[in-house]
Amino acid sequence: MIFIAFASFPPENIKIAAKVFLTLKVLPNSVKRVGPYFKIDPDAPIEIITIYEFDPDYIDKAKKFLEARYKAFAEVPGFLVKIEARLDMQEALLRLQLK
After folding, report:
1. Closest CA to 36 of 22, 25, 47
2. Considering its fold, how many domains does the chain have in total?
3. Given pLDDT bands bounded at 50, 70 and 90, which one contains residue 96?
4. If residue 71 lies in a helix (H) or strand (E), which one and from where to where?
5. Structural domain that includes position 68
6. 23-27, 35-39, 44-48: lowest mean pLDDT where?
7. Do residues 94 and 14 touch, judged by C-beta distance below 8 A?
8. How far apart are CA 68 and CA 10, in angstroms?
9. Residue 89 maps to which CATH number?
10. Is the pTM of this model over 0.85?
């Protein structure tokens, strides 16, 4: 299972967001990060996608960790985040067979 974080903020707040990013704690060994990947369009908010992979036994702790991690960006005006869970194919097949 993975979590995908979709975040955005106005481009004029990039310096504030960068300062917050530099204060974040190091990810625990049980969480692997892919990204962040940025979409920069001069006429739109900056969009960031980050993928977090982790051991399935760590689901609840990982979600709480990520929610706390992104709360640090609350001081960035206009910052928005949505965190969504996704299953890999094996997990999805197992779940679909249970229904």
Report:
1. 47
2. 1
3. confident
4. helix 59-71
5. 2-98
6. 23-27
7. no
8. 21
9. 3.30.70
10. no
